[in-house]
Amino acid sequence: MKLTYSGKTKDVYALEDGNYLLQFKDDVTGVDGVFDPGANTVGLTIEGAGRAGLRLTKYFFEVLKEKGIPTHYIDADIEQATMTVKPAEVFGKGLEVICRYRAVGSFLRRYGLYAIEGQPLDAFVEVTIKDDDREDPPINQDALDMLGILTKDEYIVLKELTQQIGNVVKEELAKKDIELYDIKFEFGRTGEDKQIVLIDEISGGNMRAYKDGEYIEPLVLEKMFL
Amino acid sequence: MKLTYSGKTKDVYALEDGNYLLQFKDDVTGVDGVFDPGANTVGLTIEGAGRAGLRLTKYFFEVLKEKGIPTHYIDADIEQATMTVKPAEVFGKGLEVICRYRAVGSFLRRYGLYAIEGQPLDAFVEVTIKDDDREDPPINQDALDMLGILTKDEYIVLKELTQQIGNVVKEELAKKDIELYDIKFEFGRTGEDKQIVLIDEISGGNMRAYKDGEYIEPLVLEKMFL
Questions:
Q1: Which of A129, A145, B6, B199 sits CB 3.0–4.6 Å from B72 for a disulfide?
Q2: Per-residue b/e over A47-65, b at no fewer than 16 CB within 10 Å?
Q3: Which among B52, B10, B9 has a CA at the least distance from the CA of B28?
Q4: Which residues contact A11 (CB under 8 A, 6 or more apart)?
């Protein structure tokens, strides 16, 4: 088992059968010791954060599997905080795809001239480039195509999958009276036919969830939901 | 004749016949006394800048008229530095629509992870919100629709017009061996059928033009081209 990548919150190992093992870490992103899922730096270490993220991820990826929505997921070992996944290549050097149901966060910071805080949005999809140095800039369909990151046809698939998956997560959370405001995903291409599949994780750190108008901290979400 | 708006580089007067008069000023945008067409503040005053901008605008708007591309232009008086235009409502509180033929400026600042300086782009269109406080953020087709600024169908018209007009300007400049790198436009809705038309101006301050690889200052462009 060979370490191929060490990320902010996960290590990635290559397995002998061609699949990969994701080791969820207890490091979480944040600034000045405060947990912030949107931050680009590791802010602090919280014991159990890795397992909590994996438990939610396992739950959602298995729901998606039942619904026939493609992901890279094979299986997960909660005790070891590891997930086995199919190999996938990311788009360019990595994209984040965001699905928004209410106007908060960077959407509000950018479009505050028109949007009011918490305003409903109809599963609005936007793509940002993973680029810490340039603060993850948003990018549109034409630019993704022109820069060779994603074709226009792939963008259509990506947007549809994003809305489908966002809606699944939203409905699942609603069963516990939790409201999803926004969620970010990563996708990749897998197999010979370069099928677009969901990769990475679905956990508290990827979304903003609220209950009775109160924001739910990522680690609280896992306890409240599962 | 009533002053209805005083902008950074133009004053707008309402005429009795329902049309409007644009008074081109000698104030140009910039920072710390240096002319920068992309800046959001008035940087300095250059004698003759208003007339130079109007001469180019008159030239391009008349070429567009010949080609049947809709604009708000009626006529211009170079001596007085004024242009008479049809009434038009802007989208929301104003949008800028950019057409790019080479990767420079804010495109390169945002997408420098993938783009190299000066890389050719295929008449790439992007829309930004006019919002000085939020540094004119880019916005995509879905967000424009969801925020009630522009419908999805209007976006398609806007993008086509932008590429058509960009290509006209590019071809005109090419006649003098000048290469257009990028250009920004403003559009509005006019008449009862809310037709989308080009408004504002087309001058050195709206574009980046190069000759033999050297950037041409906006006021030099007018002299070189006309």
A1: B199
A2: eebbebbbbbbbbbbebbe
A3: B9
A4: A3, A5, A22, A23, A25
Return the pLDDT at B59. 98
ipTM, two decimals: 0.91
- Condensed to tens digits (0 to 9), the pLDDT of residues A149-162 reads 999 999 999 999 99
B:105-124 residues touching chain A, CB 8 A cutoff:
107, 109-115, 121-122, 124
Specify the 3-state DSSP secondary structure of B13. Answer: strand
Tell me if the pTM is above 0.95: no
Query: Could you report the average pLDDT of every consecutive run of 10 residues in chain B (226 residues)?
Result: 90 96 90 75 86 97 98 97 97 98 96 97 97 95 97 98 98 98 98 97 95 93 94
- Interface A-B, measured as beta-carbon pairs within 8 A, has a size of 77
Helix A49-66 vs helix A152-174: crossing angle, to nearest 10:
110
- Residues A155, A160, A166, A168, CA torsion sign: negative
Contact: B143, A131; criterion CB under 8 Å = no
Q: Do residues A27 and A42 lie in contact, with contact meaning Cβ atoms separated by under 8 Å?
A: yes
Chain B contact for A146, CB < 8 A? yes
Q: Which residues of B touch A142 (CB under 8 A)?
A: 124-126
Structural tokens at position A66: 């039942």
Q: Is A140 touching B (CB cutoff 8 A)?
A: yes
Q: Express each pLDDT in B36-55 by its tens digit.
A: 766 777 778 888 999 999 99
The answer to whether A57 and A83 are in contact (CB under 8 A) is yes
Phi/psi of residue B15, each to 5°? -95, 160
> In chain A, whose CA is at the least distance from the CA of B136?
A110
The answer to whether the Cβ–Cβ distance between A139 and B110 falls below 8 Å is yes
DSSP state letters, B51-113: HHHHHHHHHHHHHHHHTT--BSEEEEETTTTEEEE---EESTT-EEEEEEEE--HHHHHHHTT
At B119, which amino acid appears?
Q
